[in-house]
From TrEMBL:
Compartments, as annotated in UniProt: Cytoplasm
Organism field: Streptococcus danieliae
Protein name listed in UniProt: Ascorbate-specific PTS system EIIA component
GO molecular-function terms, A-Z: kinase activity
Residues covered by the PTS EIIA type-2 domain: 6-148
Alphabetically ordered keywords of this record: Cytoplasm, Kinase, Phosphoprotein, Phosphotransferase system, Sugar transport, Transferase, Transport
Length: 161
């Protein structure tokens, strides 16, 4: 699963959106995946339920969340979406998020060994949250992904398939 390819094929980069609640923000990040057929509606509800039960376990760093749920919760194919918000939203633990990179993975293996290294590579770029938040077009986001492709986290990954 290739991050850049998945974002392009699913037309799932949405920039400068507004949300009043974390639930709305998660919805905005999952909508492109529902629209593209990568996940079913139940995937959104599974994320809400697991967030209520376990807290926002998918906030990976200040300003960034990776909403996701289990593969059996309606995932049809591996996919990503990336959403930026004009203003951060606060989650139940008080942490604020402005960039959401939703993940739909058909297996835990893909989630851990393929998706996570690509996400780390992108977000280890200097000022990544600020830079992504300032992107005005999907092309700018894709250029940042290209910039991250030399990350040591991606060594040995076959991202062409």
């Amino acid at each position: 699963m290739n991050l850049k390819q998945a974002l392009t094929e699913n037309n799932s980069i949405r920039l400068g959106l507004s949300a009043d609640t974390w639930q709305e923000a998660v919805r905005l990040s999952i909508d492109p995946l529902i629209e593209s057929g990568a996940v079913e509606e139940e995937y959104y509800h599974a994320i809400l339920e697991s967030t209520e039960e376990y807290g926002p376990y998918y906030i990976l760093m200040p300003g960034m969340a990776m909403p996701h749920a289990r593969p059996e919760a309606g995932v049809k194919r591996d996919s990503f979406s990336l959403v930026t918000l004009t203003e951060p939203v606060a989650f139940s633990d008080g942490k604020e998020v402005q960039v959401l990179l939703a993940l739909a993975a058909t297996s835990s293996e893909i989630h851990t060994s393929v998706a996570i290294p690509q996400i780390i590579a992108l977000f280890e770029l200097e000022n990544s949250i600020e830079r992504l938040s300032n992107c005005q077009s999907p092309e700018e986001v894709l250029a940042m992904i290209d910039e991250s492709k030399n990350s040591p986290y991606l060594e040995g990954l076959d991202l062409e398939s």
